[in-house]
Write a structure and sequence with these properties.
The chain is α+β, with helices and mostly antiparallel strands and 362 residues long. It has six helices and 13 strands. Strands 1, 2, 3, 4, 5, 6 and 7 form a seven-stranded antiparallel sheet that branches. Strands 8, 9, 10, 11, 12 and 13 form a six-stranded antiparallel sheet that branches. β3 and β4 form a beta hairpin. The relative contact order is 0.12. Mean pLDDT is 85; it is low at 1-22.
Length: 362
């Protein structure tokens, strides 16, 4: 009987030991990985300071006492990510993309705009530790150990095509160059106000001149400025069938969408899947027009032969959530500037030529 009990006790001891070893193995691996990472920092980045589990070097301190990054904030920032051997795996910099031979005209090399919260898989754990230490205007180099880096299902770029294909960075220690541009607590107000500032600065318009949807008082941030006006011609009604050309840009001048081939060619952004031809639409049907519900409210303020520029918040166009799987990527809360040509035809059915205007963006 004693021998049976001893055997049972021995099995329990062995089982406990195996469980203990299994639990200690990852910890041991993490310890080795961290020691290797610390040794690399000591040799290659001696000026980097430890901040918790990460290291950071300040390249430039922002001026003033602007708000720091807080949970549930929105942040505008630029970045370039590298593995520790210097291989670039992602960048928002056009010059760096060209230097590594991965520049693409249809990629928008501009600041990212994203939510800072625990659910955001664009930001790894290391960035979640680093960003709350920053203020707008800060430029830093952040060194992140492998256990706080990126893993399956995560990615700094989501649908952003600045990511360098073929470079593996998941599960590796990485270095991130970050420039924090802006911290926003309410992204909707921030976007609306940026559209208003554009209209005021460029056109002298005030919020009282906004085009608003009578059905939804939240749809604000839509301004129309006629560059060619024909006040003597009949107004376009909701059921009027009209032909239009358009070119839509982000506020930094990057072309988002157009049905004018010469504009796409000039920007080196010809989309072989798009039809570059006039579009025949009616305002009451525009709700079905891809990504541009703002036409339903704008066209009824226009007449044939007119050209107008429209500054609009994203609620009127592609939506406040953006389209991260779009090509090019559309980040959340991105305002746009659109030029619209409403075609006028003569008695023979031929288009009346439009006068030449300076381009919205050179």
């Amino acid at each position: 009987m004693k021998r049976i009990l001893s055997s049972a006790a021995l099995l329990v001891v062995v089982a406990v030991a195996l469980v203990s070893c299994a639990e200690e193995a990852p910890d041991r691996g993490l310890e080795i990985s961290r020691k290797s990472f610390d040794a690399w920092i000591t040799k290659n980045a001696p000026n980097a300071q430890a901040y918790g589990d990460i290291y950071m070097e300040y390249i430039e301190h922002g001026r003033g006492s602007a708000s720091p990054v807080l949970n549930q904030s929105w942040i505008s920032f630029n970045y370039t990510g590298r593995t520790l051997d210097g291989t670039v795996f992602a960048t928002r910099s056009e010059s760096i993309s060209k230097r590594v031979g991965r520049f693409i005209y249809s990629t928008r090399y501009s600041s990212d705009f994203t939510a800072f919260n625990e659910r955001n898989v664009k930001l790894c754990k290391g960035l979640h530790q680093a960003l709350p230490l920053l203020h707008p205007g800060d430029s830093v180099r952040i060194y992140i150990p492998s256990d706080l880096s990126y893993f399956g299902g995560m990615g700094i770029n989501s649908g952003y095509y600045g990511e360098i294909s073929g470079v593996t960075y998941n599960g590796k220690p990485i270095c991130m160059d970050i420039r924090l541009k802006e911290v926003v607590t309410d992204a909707g107000i921030w976007e609306r106000d940026s559209v208003r500032r554009y209209a005021l600065h460029h056109w002298g318009q005030t919020p009282d001149q906004e085009i608003k949807s009578p059905e939804d008082f939240l749809r604000v941030g839509l301004f129309l400025q006629k560059q060619v006006a024909h006040p003597d011609k009949p107004a376009i009604r909701e059921d009027t069938l009209v032909t239009i050309y358009y070119a839509q840009y982000f506020m930094d001048g990057f072309l988002l969408e157009t049905n004018v081939d010469t504009i796409a060619i000039k920007r080196n952004q010809v989309d072989q899947s798009s039809a570059y031809e006039e579009k025949e639409v009616a305002p009451w049907q525009i709700d079905q027009f891809p990504n541009n519900k703002m036409f339903a409210y704008v066209l009824v303020h226009m007449r044939r032969g007119e050209i107008a520029d429209v500054a609009s918040a994203s609620v009127w166009t592609h939506g406040v959530d953006g389209k991260l799987d779009n090509y090019p990527e559309i980040a959340p809360y991105q305002p746009t500037l659109t030029r619209i040509w409403v075609v006028e035809k003569d008695e023979n059915g031929d288009e009346v030529p439009f006068p030449e205007l300076p381009p919205l963006f050179p």
